[in-house]
Amino acid sequence: MGLKILTEHINVPGIETLEVYRKHGGYKSVEKALKTMSPAEVVEEVKTSGLRGRGGAGFPAGMKWSFLAKPEGIPRYLVCNADESEPGTFKDRWYMEKNPHGLIEGMITSSYALGANTSYIYIRGELMFILRILEKAIAEAYAAGLLGKNILGSGYDLDLHVAPGGGAYICGEETALLESLEGKRGNPRNKPPFPAVKGLFQSPTVVNNVETISSVPWIVNNSGAEYAKIGIGRSTGTKLISASGNINNPGVYEIELGVPVEEFIYSDEYCGGIWKGRELKAVVPGGSSVPILPKNLILKTAAGENRLMSYESLSDGGFVTGSMLGSGAFIVFDEEQCIVRNTWNYARFYHHESCGQCSPCREGTGWMEKVLHRIEYGHGHQQDIDLLVSVAKQIEGNTICPLGDAAAWPVAAAIRHFREEFEWHIKHPKEATAPGAVYRGQLDTVTA
Amino acid sequence: MAKVTIDGIEIEVEDGTTILQAARKIGGKIVPPAMCFYTPLKGSGGKCRVCLVKVTQGSSKDTRPMPKLVASCITQVQDGMVVENTTNEEVLNARKGIVEMLLINHPLDCPICDQAGECKLQDLSYEHGVSAQRFEEERRTFNKVDLGPYIQLHMTRCILCYRCVHVADQITPERVHGVLGRGDAAEIGTYIENVIDNDFSGNVIDVCPVGALTDKTWRFKNRVWFTKPLDAHRDCPTCSGKVTLWTRGEEVLRVTARKDQYNESLEFICNTCRFDKKETKDWTIEGPTHINRNSVISANHYELPVLNVPIVPNLPVSTKKNLPQE
Asked: Which of A257, A298, B30, B287 is a plausible cystine mate for B318, CB 3.0–4.6 Å?
């Protein structure tokens, strides 16, 4: 069993209540930070820890904090991005449901470090039941003097609000989130200025993911140097992974970064192997927006070494041979799964969720979805494959926010690694669209 | 001040200037196209992505290239920045791709569109487009919508540049239209078939780069290249009263705001000037509007040629002042 930082007490009955949470060491970091450390010292500990943003981009959290502008007389804000909604990603909602005080403790400690006196948890609107859990926990924290004026007699004030979004995937993008939080249509903003300079209500703002913020209390309690010892290389600490797909034990796992992918898939501690004794076909290691990797590449790097669950190892080789850790949504496909159908399904999601503000994403996501739909339903042409690659290339890097990239990468990677499967779909439309049909490599036959 | 080099031409501009504005100061072919950016409108730009350029050197302090193409209309220059626009293959390919995408849902119905001759997308598709269309799926269609007595919306032609939304936000007392829906289902619309009805509503027509919002008092009356634009003014209590009259013979077919070479309004005008003053006697005529000789609108050859030596000694002052200074 690896070290558990976020999930050590997750299964303790009643851990969602303040009383039980405090019995298990809860809110010690608030006392320590507010009474014995300066905000700059907390920031320094987070920098030392090497903690990287757990929302997907993996940018060092301490460095992001240090970018925060500190003009006199203007408020600063911390906003927790709890708008998790990418297909396959469900770690944050699980964590907030199980351990709301873990997040609230992180919010207080982090807000103190950033000099924020008002903070927000922006939560996906569909997660109304978790919003209620959080509001209950926040009320408990206010009653105990952990929120509000003069927290624990330290002289530090903090108000914490939970704000539900309307349920649009784009609002997980930090600037669209801020627009939505301000009560506007959730369209991404052009950057620069970055939120650290002009964010919520035109004030300096840090937007961090639930898991990132929840990791801060442990760092404050145990030091950044101790946190940096966990994990591998620049992938320090632990990571929540939401594992789904064709595995025996789907669920959320906390791993020490650096666990071999093979071990994560096959060991009983984690995914427990491929269900029904089938063969592994491919994995999307970091949520539906990251490139899919076939069996040979998900288990081994380009250099033939074991691929590890870390930011560096999963992206090793760039997008030709690598992928990304992303938000840690590990989606496993067995040999019975159709890559074309899966790619169409992802494209359908991004088409539906594009905000429509910039031309390449607005038009391109729909175009890709329609072409993939044709191929999947037996009306594709051979030139459609190159067309998809071309459209993906026209979107990638040319949009305001990363949703365009998120839509383009899965399509481009699926064609890169499984081109013959697309070709087979087009050449054998009747067989390919039969129920249960799946391309099986050189056999070129179907099991209907 | 910052020195920036665009396609090999160096220019010094004030800090805070965007790449697009710097390129416009140089002028000519190196100016990136812009469909959504509109100088007088705060917050415009960054959406259509046709103005993407490659920054091959960020600044003299940080000489690294920017990893992605950037929207020139919103990216500020830095001292020592080197930008490639027409000289970069990646930029031209990206632009070609974006034009192709814009044309997915924009019909090339130029022969009947009232924006023909003044359409920026038309220019863009000539300069950066491809002759073949690869999109073979069903295109979206809409009915034409009358937004009040003066404006008609052809949503089929809209490229969602948001300019009209910015106009309504920034120069009219209230906005009754906006973008509804998202993705490629996004559309300009009013809430429960409202009408756009205020003193400055007509400006949404002027800012529309394509033929999505058209002037109902002008539709199908003429083609723009058959008309003669004249600068004129009147004493208006609501706006500056400085307009362009589009005439054929003695008849004023259309009134618009005066525009610069990038088709951006110099001053927004009120509806009274635009829709109610269609007699030449309502106006003090200043002289012909200067139209770039490469524009299709100049086909009527109404303006005297640009000459270094004045061969018409008694050229009226009003004409002379509108000749390009070369």
From this structure: B287
Q: What angle do CA A73, A74, A79 make, to 5 degrees?
A: 145
The count of other CB atoms within 10 Å of the CB of residue A268 is 9
Q: Is B101 helix (H, G, I), strand (E, B) or coil?
A: helix
Ramachandran bin of A4, using left for φ above 0, alpha for ψ from -120 to 50, beta for the remaining angles: beta
Largest Cα–Cα separation, chain A: 73
Pairing of strands A293-294, A280-284: antiparallel
In this predicted structure, what is the pLDDT of residue A439? 82
Residue-wise pLDDT for A267-280, tens only, equals: 999 999 999 999 99
Token pair of A381, please?
Answer: 């042409």
CA-nearest residue of chain B to A349? Answer: B183
A280 exposed, middle or buried (CB, 10 Å; 0-12, 13-18, 19+)?
buried
In the block, residue with structure tokens 């012909």: B288
Q: Is the pLDDT of residue A61 over 60?
A: yes
Residues of B in contact with A398 (CB under 8 A): 49, 52, 68-69, 94, 97-98
Residue of A nearest to B185 (CA): A356
Q: What is the DSSP letter of A300?
A: B
Q: Which positions in chain A have a beta carbon within 8 angstroms of at least one beta carbon in chain B?
A: 168, 170, 185, 190, 351-360, 362-367, 370-371, 374, 387, 390-391, 393-394, 397-400
| Residue partners of B232: CB distance under 8 A and separation at least 6 | B242, B243, B244, B245, B283, B284, B285, B286
pLDDT tens digits along A181-191: 999 999 999 98
ipTM score of complex: 0.88
Predicted local distance difference test score (pLDDT) of residue B318: 54
Model pTM score: 0.91
Q: How far apart are the first and last CA of chain A?
A: 42
Q: Are A208 and A61 in contact (CB under 8 A)?
A: yes
Residues 6+ apart with CB under 8 A from B136: none
Q: What are the pLDDT digits (tens) for A402-447?
A: 999 999 999 999 999 999 999 999 998 888 888 778 887 654 444 4
Q: What is the pLDDT of residue A444?
A: 45
| C-alpha distance from residue A39 to each of A32, A42, A110, A224 (Å) | 11, 5, 9, 14
DSSP states along B267-294: S---HIIIII--SGGGSEEEEEPP--TT
> Residues near B73 by Cβ (< 8 Å), separated by ≥ 6?
B18, B19, B20, B32, B34, B36, B37, B44, B45, B46, B51
* Torsion sign across C-alpha atoms A357, A363, A369, A372: negative
Contacts of A355 in chain B (CB under 8 A): 182-183, 186
Quote the percentage of chain A above a pLDDT of 70. Answer: 98
Nearest Cα of chain B lies from the Cα of A161 at a distance, in angstroms, of 28
